[in-house]
Amino acid sequence: MITEPRGGARVLVAEDDRGVQETLETALRFEGYRVTAASDGAEALASMAEAEHDLLLLDVGMPRVDGITVCRLARDRGVRTPILMLTARQEVR
Questions:
Q1: Coil, strand, or helix at residue 16?
Q2: Please, what is the Cα angle at 83 between 26 and 62, to 5 degrees?
Q3: CA within 20 to 30 Å of 89's CA: 15, 32, 60, 62, which one?
Q4: What is the spatial distance between Cα 15 and Cα 41, in angstroms, rounded to a whole number?
Q5: Per-residue pLDDT of the chain in tens (93 residues, 90 and over written 9)
Q6: Eight-state DSSP code of residue 30
């Protein structure tokens, strides 16, 4: 399969489940994205402070700082990067 290059767009994957994180990283890198991984919300916030990203993939239920809080803090700090929220939960609270 030949894929179109993505121009090295940077994607931050914040996911505490290592298997899910690795799957997302592999798929995104295969498509030509540059991936930064974080295993919790605090790491995601630190990564966002260090570098700009073109897309944020945030797990809703992460330890230390959850994905919803990361999203709110990012917006409060003026980050306008598109954000996709991920969850394995079937119910919405």
A1: coil
A2: 70
A3: 32
A4: 8
A5: 445 556 789 999 999 999 999 999 999 999 999 999 999 999 999 999 999 999 999 999 999 999 999 999 999 999 999 999 998 876 655
A6: H
